[in-house]
Specification:
This protein is α/β, with parallel strands linked by helices. The chain is built from 9 helices and 12 strands. The longest helix is centred in the middle third of the chain and has 18 residues. It is globular.
Length: 321
């Protein structure tokens, strides 16, 4: 689907287990295989607790997987230590869900934006004001905001500051963890438009976590759907309506659209999501799937390629053994 020479990061068989009470284990991520390409956005979507944020934290080394490897330009991020890890961090940056929580409230905006540059010795203290104004302009904010504090700004403005800080080191990959979910719909639109513009200008790879399939399909080049720690479907962003997995189809039915047929009853998924500590054997979606077969209860389906760029983990589309 994408040119392999543009791939900058690849996750291979990434699994993360956490110890739980009673000698049990919670598997937050199960055998994840994903690729990130220069100038492309990979949207990772799923319910709360499915493992989206856990996986993305691996990319910026806020955590390490129990198994698997994450290759950035041929180097396994999970094995890097010391100065080599520190130098690599400048190439992969993150925009958090709550920008206010990721800022030091005692620091002015110029210091927040320029702190990464100062840490790597790219600028001097006398250059901070000019550099901060340049990045404020890049995210469409007035230069005089450089002298403000975070609490003097709105949620949308703080999120733009977070994006400016992420851009400061000119990274090759930016991870955005539900960066618009706390914003008004009108502000979400402007932030997404800003991200799309900056990506085109700087040819950055983006990993975008979201709950809203309607939002992510509007700008993501590829979408990976996650359920109980597993990737159940990967497909092009423009082909979301052609999704096959029952879980992805259920997410599509939940998307609100002003053009939808309001005479039809909104469908919901029957039953609750199982506990991550008690995932059933076989397909993780079996307890909520109307198409569940005996094979689904016994064998965990792997991703099967339906066509280039579209894979699904479902026995209705799997190859016969």
């Amino acid at each position: 689907m994408f040119d392999e020479k543009d791939m900058i990061l690849e996750a291979r068989h990434v699994t993360r287990r956490f110890p739980a009470s009673g000698g049990r284990e919670l598997t937050a991520c199960q055998d994840i295989n994903l690729k990130f390409y220069r100038g492309k956005t990979l949207g990772l979507i799923g319910e709360s607790g499915c493992g989206k944020s856990t996986f993305m934290r691996f990319l910026v080394r806020l955590d390490v997987p129990t198994e698997g490897e994450i290759l950035f330009k041929g180097k396994d991020l999970t094995k890097l230590r010391g100065e080599e890890l520190r130098q690599t961090r400048q190439h992969i940056q993150m925009v958090f869900q709550d920008p206010g929580g990721s800022f030091n409230p005692k620091m002015k905006i110029r210091d927040i934006i320029c702190e990464p540059l100062m840490n790597f010795g790219r600028i001097t203290a006398s250059e901070k004001d000019a550099v901060a104004r340049k990045f404020l302009d890049a995210v469409e904010l007035p230069g005089e905001f450089a002298g403000r504090f975070p609490h003097n700004m709105s949620g949308g403005q703080r999120q733009r500051i977070a994006i400016a800080r992420a851009l400061a080191l000119e990274p090759e990959l930016i991870v955005m963890d539900e960066a618009t979910c706390a914003l008004d719909v009108s502000v979400q639109k402007t932030i997404i438009e800003l991200v799309v513009r900056l990506q085109k200008e700087k040819n950055i790879a983006i990993g975008f976590i979201a709950h809203d399939l309607g939002l992510i399909q509007a700008f993501a080049h590829q979408i990976a759907v996650m359920y109980l720690g597993s990737i159940v479907e990967v497909l092009p962003g423009e082909d979301v309506e052609k999704a096959c997995h029952p879980y992805t189809r259920a997410l599509l039915r939940a998307v609100f659209d002003t053009k939808m047929d309001f005479t039809k009853k909104i469908e919901s998924i029957d039953s609750e999501i199982p506990s991550p500590l008690d995932v059933p054997p076989g397909c993780p979606f079996q307890t909520r799937c109307e198409h569940c077969m005996e094979r689904c209860r016994q064998v965990r389906p792997g991703l099967t390629e339906l066509k280039p760029g579209h894979e699904v983990a479902c026995h209705m589309f799997g190859r016969e053994e």
